Amino acid sequence: MGKVTVCVAVVCGVAVTAAAAVVIHRKMKKSGKWVKAMEIVKEFEESCRTPISKLKQVADAMTVEMHAGLASEGGSKLKMLITYVDSLPTGDEKGLFYALDLGGTNFRVLRVLLGGKDGGILKQQFKEVSIPPNKMTGSSAALFDYIAAELAKFVAQEEDDFKSTSGRPRELGFTFSFPVMQTSIASGTLLRWTKGFSIDETVGQDVVAELTKALERQGLEMRVSALVNDTVGTLAGGKYANNDVVVAVILGTGSNAAYVERAQAIPKWHGLLPKSGEMVINMEWGNFRSSHLPLTEYDQALDAESLNPGEQIYEKVISGMYLGEIFRRVLCRMAKEAFFGDIVPPKLKEPFILGTPVMSAMHHDTSPDLKVVANNLKDILEISNTSLKMRTVIVQLCDIVATRGARLSAAGLLGILKKMGRDTIKEGEKQKTVIAMDGGLYEHYEEYRNSLENCLKELLGEEVFKTIKIEHSNDGSGIGAALLAASHSQYLEDES
C-alpha cells in the first residue's frame, strides 16, 4: 500500500489542508479588499458631511459675499452683476419675438407669439442644436457663425401664422449664460468662459456685437433687443407666469442665481435710480467659495485639472457637469485600491465618461439586483460580472455626491433669502416668495431635487418654509429672453 502525503497548514490555530488554506487565504484577501473599499467610502462620506450647522455657515458666508459684491466691483468672488433689467415682463407684451439660448453643450432657438394682456403666450416653437466640441474651443467667428447659421435655418421655417406683418426687423432675446459685464440691456462683454468653453479671443468682447456680425454674414435681418443671462431669463419667464417670483436658480450643466434687489441696496450703482426702485442682479453664484464648503481630495484634483482652476468652486460641487465626474474619481480609486488591483478598467480612467445623467440613472435604480447599475457599468465602462455588493456600494457613492450637492444648493438659497429678508416671517405681513427653478439637474434628478427641498425646509423651519414655493420653470431661460426682448422692444414707443 503506497504512502499518502498530506500537507497540513495551520491557519488561525486550526489545522487545514493546503487546498483549504488557499481558499481561506483568498477569502481573507477578498475580505481585506472590501475593508479597504468601505474605508474609502466612509472617508469620502465623512469629507462630504453637511450638517445643518455647517450649511448655516455656508449661507451666512453667501450673504456676506453678496453684500461685498454689491458694494464694489471686484469686492467679492460673487460678481453680483447689474443686469439693466429694472422691470420684468408685465403680461401686456404683444407680437412675434425670437430667443437664442446659449448655455452649455447645446443651444436652443425659439419663437414666441405673444397676445398681450388677455392672450398670454399664443404659440411657441423651438429647436435644440448640439455644439460640436471643436466649436467650443476654436475661434469666436466659428462659434457665432455656426449659431447664426442654425438660427437662419430656423427663421426660414417660420409658418404663416407666426409671420409678422409689420415689416419690421425681427427682434431677438439673447440668453448667454456665461459671466458677462453688461453695459446696457443689449450689450455686454464676456468676463470668462465656463462649462467647457475656452475661446480666449472672445473674452473682453461684446457678445452681442459678435452675434450681430455673424447674423449679418448670414444675411439675416434681426436685432438683439435684450442680452440676458439664463437665470435672468428664468426670472422673467417665472414672473410672467407668477407675480410672486423674485428669485431664479439654474441647476443644470452649470449653476447660477438671480434675484430682484432694491436699487438703493446697490452701493456700486452710480446711475439714476430706476423708476421701479428695483434691479435684477445676476449673482454668478457658481464662483462662490468659502472655507465652510466641505471639499474633498477628489474635488481638489478635479479643480486642479479643469479648464478654470481656482474658479467656479461652488459650481464644481453642486452642478450637473461635475457630479458624475466626482463620482468617477472616487470609483477610480476604489477600483485601483479595492476592486481590481493595479489594473483599473481603461474606460474608467477617461475623465467625464460618467455623466451625471448616468449617475442619476444608477442612483434611482430600484430593481432588486440593481440591473440598471450593472448595465451602465457594462455598457459604458466595459466592466461586467459585478457583484450585487459592489453595485450597492456604487449606489451609495451616488447618494453621497448628490446629497452633498443638493444640500449645498439649499444653503445658497438660504443665503439669498437672508439677504432679501425673507428667511423670517414679519409680524402682520402676508409674505409669499416664489423661486423659479430651471435646469436638467433639477428637473430630472429626483433624488437631488427632493434632497434640496427637504434641506431648505430643515434650514428655514416649517413655518417660514410655508411662505416659500419652488416652481419648476420649464425652459424659462428661453421664453424669458423672448419676453425681455418684447418688454425692451425698440418699437414700444411707436405703438404708444
From TrEMBL:
Keyword terms: ATP-binding, Glycolysis, Kinase, Membrane, Mitochondrion, Mitochondrion outer membrane, Nucleotide-binding, Transferase
Recorded topology in the membrane: Single-pass membrane protein
Source species of the chain: Gossypium hirsutum (Upland cotton)
Gene: LOC107891712
Family per similarity comment: Belongs to the hexokinase family.
Protein name: Phosphotransferase
Keyword rRNA processing attached: no
Pathways per UniProt: Carbohydrate metabolism; hexose metabolism; Carbohydrate degradation; glycolysis; D-glyceraldehyde 3-phosphate and glycerone phosphate from D-glucose: step 1/4
Transmembrane segments: none
Gene3D superfamilies, alphabetized: 3.30.420.40, 3.40.367.20
An annotated GO BP: glucose metabolic process
